[in-house]
Hints:
- Helices cover 49% and strands 5% of the residues.
- By secondary structure, the protein is mainly alpha-helical.
- The chain has two domains: 220 residues, Orthogonal Bundle (Citrate Synthase, domain 1), CATH 1.10.580.10; 104 residues, CATH 1.10.230.10.
- The protein has a three-stranded antiparallel β-sheet. Strands 1-2 form a two-stranded antiparallel ribbon.
- A hairpin with a 2-residue loop joins strand 4 and strand 5.
- The longest helix has 27 residues.
- The model has no long low-confidence stretch (mean pLDDT 95).
- The structure holds acetyl coenzyme *A.
- The site of acetyl coenzyme *A has 17 residues, from loops.
Amino acid sequence: MPKDTLTITDNRTGKTYEVPIENGCIRTHALRQIKVGDDDFGLMGYDPAFLNTANCRSAITFIDGDKGILEYRGYPIEQLAEKSSFLEVAYLLLNGELPTPKELEKFIHLVTHHTYVHENIKTFMDGFRYDAHPMSMLASTVAALSGFYPDAKHTKDEHHRRIQITRLIAKMPTLAAFSYRHSMGLPYIYPDNDLSYVANFLAMIRRIGTATYKVHPTLERALDLLFILHADHEQNCSTTSVRTVGSSEVDPYSAVSAGIGALYGPLHGGANEAVLRMLREIGHVSKIPDFIKAVKSGEGEKKLMGFGHRVYKSYDPRAKVIKRVADEVFEVTGKNPLLDIAVELERIALQDEYFVKRKLYPNVDFYSGLIYEAMGFPVEMFPVLFAIPRTVGWCAQWEEMVKDPEQKIARPRQIYVGAQRRDYVPMDKRAAK
Ligand code: ACO
């Protein structure tokens, strides 16, 4: 009868250990019993960048990277993208079930009525230079919210947690729009409770001199859909940052602000900005073969931005949906001239042995930047457009972590490879290197 265990023989001592296997995992803490002597700390796992380490049990998002499957609470992303709305998906991610019409109405009402920010936030924003990146403004103002809501420190209290989560989801578009208006030198526009979540955000971005600015329904639906696709993606770099920072029991504004910082990086949420820069650098379809050659040779450490993913080793299911949305958006806005380069780049890369062998396929960022640009957003706003919906995932993951009795303050181990103990050298005895 097969047993769900792993038998390990330590060849240093000849001892054998039996370790339980649960959900395809062993607890690496079980390795600590494997020692060569009493003063031995015990065996550890070494896994830089967590390539093969599960950090938590989660019931929120399922990904099968080989098959290109993404599900929120068991619902396939393709079905949610076609049939749902962003706030409905937000409810699902936070509560585990799709809302009834009444539950959704209440949730939308709650979010809509928490969109305003304290007036001092405007003064805070004014402190930034005219050319500050909107993502750094967003990270700072979200962190600053903890100063405005001291009750946020009650992370063990479900009532308090839910209030902060509502505030975060509701205020994120306001802060994002304010950061954009600041960088453009435009006056801040207050939220409009008569508009949907996405239309309100677009109105706060676009309105100038009139209160009657109308958001095009195709663009409203497209952005709502992009928000659905970006709402959660299990234990990625920013979500892990939110969980890690949140594990110290700090308030969720500080934890989410850390997530925004992680998302700012070009290998994560900054990738769609990098894709557009890359497409501009290529400039013309005829230059693609030279660019691919440079990527393959590692020349200038060039990468094909928007390609490859730590988890997906096939086509990112979100990229497939986005490609379809792109056509609808371009019908309204006119085609982004960089689209031809992107389509041809994808075609060539998907046939090239280098990319095929490494299972490098377009990810969510390959086409999203083209849509955002066609909608009139400057590249600096792209990661901000990612942070708005991902706030839902961060909050759901943060709350799951807070409620998980197995979680403790995150504190990885290290393998020390530095100098051995030595005595302090006085300044006049030190030789220059
Ligand atoms: N272009 C060219 N080569 C690549 C790319 C790329 N975009 N991505 C990976 N590779 C190569 C690596 O050089 C490596 O080659 P090697 O085996 O010869 O050394 C091989 O493919 C495996 O790649 P890893 O670096 O091990 O993959 P990892 O899982 O660490 O990285 C990442 C994933 C960071 C997303 C990477 O693919 C990348 O940098 N892509 C471009 C940036 C990007 O689009 N990021 C967005 C990710 S989606 C998101 O965050 C929302």
